[in-house]
Amino acid sequence: xxxxxxxxxxxxxxxxADTPDAAPPRDTALGTxxxxxxxxxxxxxxxxxxxxxxxxxxxxxxxxxxxxxxxxDVTEYRPRNVxxxxxxxxxxxxxxxDDDDYGGDTAAAAAAHDNERRWAPLLEDDGIGFYYxxxxxxxxxxxxxxxxxxxxAEFDARRAEPPCYDYAVESDVLLxxxxxxxxxxxxxxxxxDNKLAVASTIMFQVLTEHRLTFTQFVxxxxxxxxxxxxxxxxxxxxxxRYDRVRPTTVVRARGARATVRSYSREAHGAADISxxxxxxxxxxMPHSEYPSGSGAICRAVxxxxxxxxxxxxxxxxxxxxxxxxxxxxRQEPGVTPRExxxxxxxxxxxxxxxxxxxxxxxxxxxxxxVPAGEALVSGVGERAxxxxxxxxxxxxxxxxxxxxxxxxxxxxxxxxxxxxxxGFCEHDTTPADDDDDDD
Length: 439
What we know:
Layout lengths: L1 H17 L9 H19 L60 H11 L5 E3 L5 E3 L7 H4 L7 H6 L9 H13 L3 H11 L1 H15 L4 H29 L4 H6 L6 E6 L4 E6 L18 H21 L6 E5 L16 E5 L2 H14 L7 H8 L3 H12 L11 H5 L8 H4 L20
Antiparallel strand pairs: 1-2, 3-4, 5-6
């Protein structure tokens, strides 16, 4: 980074000496070179960032010698729940302890109770006869990948509270929600399940509402990704630590003779079905249930966006709308929604709340998982804004000792790139400039 900045500074100085009365254009060849250099740095960084992106590491961190698999687990995680022995029985409830306190009169009873609560790989298929069991996706990342907005000590210290589930009650509540699915809830389940769609919606709204330049948008994006990145890592750390069973496993374990009222793909709504045939509205992803990763991600990026627009743009939360024409659903194409649908979200809080609720409506989580995910990432969004301040030379302390100044942030002009655009902060008296900073 310092070397690249030195090249830039030297080039600016040389160009300014040649054209002292004009804003010097950046040399195209130099720009290409710098772009390639930064790209190479990113690729090099990804080789050792902990995700095992290139599959260079095998079990226990041993080097992979051939036929390496990208993102392979390095921790030797193994499911402790055997899926084909779980049918036709009541599901054990939590004893009130955390993942290290299972109750029971004997060690064997405690181990059996523990295993029954653990995540079980679900059976999936490709629709043309190929069936396979899930593998927990990237179980290692919460333990070996460094966070971006949080420091490592704070990251490690963050923990979700134990869920203390009564699985019989939780599964009954979940079945009731699935039976009550309507077009509005179905479309929200589908939309919020796609985190690229969530990110695009937020980014587009901020970009267009505030007419961000390219440089400003990249600055916003850097913090957004940091908040999302840390939220994923925190959720995965706790998912693996608790290793909780998914609702699909719990409901199906009631057995083929048990009848439940739930969502049916064939009926496009509620129907009485065998518990063994239960499925949520959307695919259950291959990772454990508690806490909710979606709850963590949506809360973190909503908090970040809210803090960012207040700090830099002196604006209130943007509003959002989800619009779907008839038959737009991917789960029920041509059927759902039956009529044109529009769902308005007054602000980011409503947007994030709808995201969390959609995971419960879709039958993907029990009730404690969403608030646990949200609580786990509390403050991550604000820390990501602090990171964006560090990128432009401001102090990183945003809501710590600097809380008073942060609370009154719009009492002063925002940083220079935003001060050159009219319509951002009314108190800013810097003259507007016809040229943005995209050169």
